[in-house]
Design goal:
Number of helices: 15
CATH class of the largest domain: Alpha Beta
Shape: globular
Structural class: alpha/beta
Strand content: 25-35%
Distance between the termini: 38 Å
CATH topology of the largest domain: Aminopeptidase
Largest sheet: 10 strands, mixed
CATH superfamily of the largest domain: Zn peptidases
Number of strands: 22
Length: 528
């Protein structure tokens, strides 16, 4: 143990013991009660409910003493293009020899969104995991007749490839970049049943809601995509019929870490996708706690969370509002409470701290992508601490930190958590690609070190079952509402840890840096 750390550790416990965690948790919960109320109708991007939520956050930021740091007061306007599918004019079928078989949508497959209406008929190739990873000398497209074809693939990837490397190339953006370079016209995603987070019945309940992209086409990630589909894994054998392969065979190989087959399917895809576009405006909410060091105040630590959720969808047991209490009113409530805590403590930091509530995370991290590309402050963003459904479902004994071993921020959270009597652990399920599936990744791609958080647990314990039950029954469902059980005291303890982490990073003599062996270090080196 380093000299002086014992004193810090004991002081941390003394300070923590003086806090009424239950009362602090109830104050945090009050924000969620409003943000996840039926009045806001699920805070869908561009909706009146979202605008009410944004106004609420801006008002709370003002009460917390944060300076307005948007382009329009606390707001950064974000222009989007909303794409809707006309289900009555959209069809999907498989053609095999002289036979055409209609594919039921959405029971068997979900149609993806194109930038314009299109009809397509194309051959299908199955490309294993559909990954092209130059650094690992791995290419699922090698030797396949991809040009002019639709590429079908199983989600996941070989464990022998570094998890972060695999996660990066598993993103839709990177996969499509490789497919497009090889001449493909579309893609079919088949989820591995082992890693599915949302049952198909709940997935189709929100299918058909409008898709969004940033209006600035230069920031688009799927240009040139003419067809996309997400296939129900329970019906994948229909897609693979007469190919000589079955879905159970393919998943068995995957789960045993054996090479997957690559082959041309005897079927071709035939689809018509009719879409309509309209312009939509939304906004990020940006508050600033300025630093006081003349040399460091133009370096910014960002604490972020997303404000949007799924809005209104198909009714489930009579409920059609997808309130998004944990996903992610919880993170927004933490933003507010951390800002108010810093105000009450009259905290002073060398660097500045940005409190950022972003829009359109559920549409593909669009609000954070826009802010990271076009920040509303002059200077340099040096860290992002992102909170996206950190899930305080049980006492805080372990904190799972995504990105734990990638940058010196991992060292910082270890110190802060240990002082609070909480142990940290790395992502236990890297194949779910959670580190690239929320707003921290928008900053990472710009070279900014970042962390994301979940309440942790020991495998095989009761907390693991609670965690997995939440994903199976509430994630992106109508029951992610204010009626669910939550550990309020644990949420308040988490907020304290995040606040202390932000203070440590904002006052550190050295700004955060990627570890020399981190995959993500390349983004800082390339200046992206």
């Amino acid at each position: 143990m380093r000299p002086g750390f014992t004193a810090l550790f004991l002081f941390g416990f003394a300070a923590l013991a003086a806090i009424d965690w239950e009362a602090a948790g109830k104050q945090w919960w009050k924000h969620i009660e409003y943000l996840a109320s039926d009045e806001l109708e699920g805070r869908d991007t561009g909706s009146a409910g979202y605008d009410k939520a944004a106004d609420y956050v801006a008002a709370q930021f003002g009460q917390a003493g944060l300076a307005a740091a948007g382009n329009d007061g606390y707001f950064q306007p974000v222009q989007l293009t909303e794409t809707s599918i006309d289900k009555s004019k959209s069809t999907l079928s498989l053609a095999r020899e002289d036979k055409t078989v209609a594919v039921p949508v959405p029971m068997e497959a979900l149609l993806g969104y194109n930038s314009e209406s299109t009809s397509i008929k194309a051959p299908i190739v199955f490309a294993g995991y559909g990954l092209v990873i130059p650094e690992a000398h791995y290419d699922d497209l090698s030797g396949l007749p991809v040009k002019g074809a639709v590429v079908a693939f199983l989600t996941g990837g070989p464990d022998k490839i570094n998890g972060n490397l695999r996660s990066h190339y598993s993103s839709t953006e990177e996969r499509w970049k490789a497919f497009r370079a090889a001449g493909a016209v579309g893609m079919i995603t088949i989820p591995d049943p082992k890693t599915i987070e949302i049952p198909w019945a709940r997935t189709i309940a929100v299918w058909g809601k409008p898709h969004m992209t940033l209006a600035d086409s230069a920031l688009g990630s799927t240009r040139g995509l003419k067809f996309g589909a997400y296939w129900n894994s329970a019906e994948a054998d229909d897609l693979l019929a007469d190919s000589g392969h079955t879905f159970s065979e393919i998943t068995k190989l995957a789960h045993n870490q054996q090479a997957l087959p690559h082959f041309t399917l005897p079927s071709s895809i035939s689809a018509t996708v009719s879409i309509a576009n309209r312009n939509v405006s939304s906004k990020n909410v940006v508050g600033l706690r300025p630093g006081n060091d003349s040399k460091l105040k133009d370096e910014y630590v960002v604490i972020s969370a997303h404000l949007d959720h799924l809005g209104i969808g198909e009714p489930v047991n009579g409920d059609k509002i997808y309130n998004g209490a944990m996903d992610d009113a919880s993170g927004i409530a933490s933003l507010i409470e951390i800002a108010k805590s810093l105000q009450s403590e009259k905290a002073v930091t060398h660097r500045s701290i940005i409190f950022l509530a972003v829009t359109a995370e559920e549409k593909g991290e669009l609000g954070s992508m826009f802010f990271a590309s076009k920040p509303t402050v002059n200077g340099k963003i040096i860290a992002d601490l992102n909170m996206d459904m950190f899930l305080p479902l049980f006492p805080l004994k372990w904190l799972e930190v995504q990105g734990l071993n990638e940058s010196t921020l991992g060292d910082d959270i270890r110190v802060v958590a240990e002082a609070a009597g909480v142990r940290v652990q790395a992502d236990k399920e890297p194949n779910r690609n959670r580190f690239i599936r929320s707003d921290q990744y928008s900053f990472i791609k710009k070279g900014v070190p970042a962390l994301a958080f979940k309440f942790g647990y020991l495998p095989g314990g009761p907390e693991e079952q609670i965690f997995k039950d939440w994903y199976a029954n509430r994630y992106h469902g109508v029951t992610d509402d204010t009626k669910q059980p939550v550990d309020l005291a644990a949420a308040a303890q988490f907020n304290q840890i995040l606040k202390n982490l932000a203070l440590r990073v904002a006052d550190s003599p050295q700004k955060p840096a990627w570890k020399p062996d981190s995959f993500f270090r390349r983004f800082a080196q390339s200046g992206e």
